[in-house]
Amino acid sequence: MASPDPVRHNLLRPELIIVVGGLSATAHAAMMITIPALPNFMEELGGFMFIGVSMSIGIALASSSLGRVVTNIPAGLMSERVGRKPIMIIGAVIIAVFGSLSGVAPNAPSFWVFRLIMGVGSAMVITIANVVATDLSSVENRGRVLGMMHGMQLVVGISTPALGGFLAAYVDIRTPFYLSGAGTAVFALWALFRLPETRPNITRIASEFGKTSRRQTGAWSLLKDPSFFWICMIGFATFYLRNGATTGLIPVYMKDVLAMGPADLGILFTVASVIHGIIIYPAGWASDIWGRKPLIVPTGVFVGIGVAAVPFMTDVMPFVITFVLLHAAIGWGGQAPAAYLGDIAPDGHRGAAFGMYRTFGDTAGIVGPLVAMGLADYVSYTAAFGSGALLWSLTVFMFWKVAKESAGSKRTHPRTMHTVTEPPVRQ
User: Fold this and answer.
1) Which pLDDT does position 49 carry in this prediction?
2) Is 138 in contact with 10 (CB distance < 8 Å)?
């Protein structure tokens, strides 16, 4: 009967991190590659009834988030029953098929439906990829393991708009959509043959918790822990900014205010991806040594200021500087929330914990684009960016005040439940 530490040591092979990170990254990239083309593509499809182009973009982004919202928790629970691997591979196939189909959408409503189904697949891949990364790691190295995985997701996800922008500008506006699922299909095939099953077989739970404790650690009851609740709220605020501002509103702002095109946005995202690639592993190391909160809170303050400043950057150069600094801050603190969640998630309920976290985030992914695009259309860009910055800053403040540290020398959050034994993974 193997102990957890040797198992995790054996699991930490670079290939496994690459496969899991690649699945997560390409699932994210399937959405991101189309961002520069989205404003012009939606103009080509035309409006629908009283819905304009900006709101149509918001609905497209919200549709994929809706697909994730209804799938995150069921996918997490199923991963505890049938395993991590089959859930991720099925999700990757869904992304590959419906990502390509979105390029042939004849009108806005059909495009929204394709994005909704892509969201289902995305939840199956990204939620469970985080669970697998937690299976592969311990609290002492989780920041670095998740840092590598999220580094791949951020670098690939942020750099693919460069490819999408150039394809849209110099090939055809639909080409980024045709190709959006290709990367996910490649990694799904790789995972099929090379990724082992990492779901632990929990043979018994420590006697002091008993069966009652197991029942009380379901998805919704996890929210009774204030630290878990506020890390979920960090997820909510993060997705609100991501879908409502950094990937949703900024391309529209660049087009309308700064008169910048898809290729310009692609170049900016390429620069941002290089920054992410440089700092993500050092950030993971720092969170393992110093703890998660020292990364989440200070960078959170900087991100809030950066988002609020965007609508005041009405010239290209100040906007570019703000954009780059904002993404540097996002990269430095980006992996710490997932590492924090992995630290405090009860063994045997990781799928439920990550499903809940992603559900909070993807709910914001529905609300964020609709609110941000609506404010931009009917009030101002200042209101659109400012509301997101305010929500984010208040959430970071509450996390700082309430949540307990889960890693580093100042760790104060106790594990509420633990696995006694975990056998080696099954090939």
Assistant:
1) 60
2) no
Query: What's the average pLDDT block by block, 10 residues per block, for the chain (427 residues)?
Result: 40 78 90 84 74 77 86 91 93 94 89 93 92 84 80 72 84 90 92 88 44 50 88 92 79 85 75 77 87 92 93 91 89 84 83 89 83 87 92 95 84 53 40
In this prediction, residue 215 carries a pLDDT of: 44
Backbone angles phi, psi at 35, to 5 degrees: -60, -50
Helix 108-135 / helix 53-69 crossing angle, nearest 10 deg: 40
Round to whole Å and give the CA distance between 295 and 234.
13
Tokens 């439940």 sit at which residue? Answer: 417
Domain membership flag for residue 202: no
Three-state DSSP at 162 gives helix
- Find, among 132, 126, 136, 66, the residue nearest to 92 by Cα: 126
238 neighbors 361 (Cβ within 8 angstroms):
yes
The per-residue pLDDT for 48 is 64
Q: Would 212 be classed as within a structural domain?
A: no
- DSSP 3-state assignment of 269? helix
Quote the CA–CA distance of 111 and 55 in Å, as a whole number: 14
What gap in Å lies between CA 384 and CA 368, rounded to an integer?
10
Question: Phi then psi for 50, rounded to 5 degrees?
Answer: -95, 5
208 φ, ψ (degrees, to nearest 5): -70, -15
Q: Which domain holds residue 386?
A: 4-197+217-402
CB 407 within 8 A of CB 339: yes
CATH of residue 87: 1.20.1250.20
Q: Is 204 part of a structural domain of the chain?
A: no
CA distance 105 to 396: 39
For the entire predicted model, the pTM comes to 0.76
Q: How far apart are CA 286 and CA 408, in angstroms?
A: 9
3-state DSSP assignment of residue 378: helix
User: What per-residue confidence (pLDDT) applies to 125?
Assistant: 95
Instruction: Name which of 245, 330, 265 is nearest 296 in CA terms.
Output: 330
